Amino acid sequence: MSTLAFLISKLIGLLQLLIIIRAVLGFLPQVDRYHPLVRFLHTVTDPILAPFQRILPGNAVGIDFSPLLAILTLQAIDRLLMMALHSMPI
Whole-structure pTM over 0.90, yes or no? Predict the structure, then answer.
């Protein structure tokens, strides 16, 4: 695997992990939303989740499915990029 493919794959994996952590923290009412780490988490994941939250508003059902859709989309992007990068001649 090329260095570029490796870095992209690891970055996408990190973004997926941050989205999972944010989703889990959303179920914990005692989490301080103004804590610097929580604010950093929101700063990093908001640009990824916002388009999916517009498509799937969680208010109607009470459950926000945007993290799931974002993770599935990131996985698809990762696979497509890996296939494209591996098919490029060196």
Answer: no
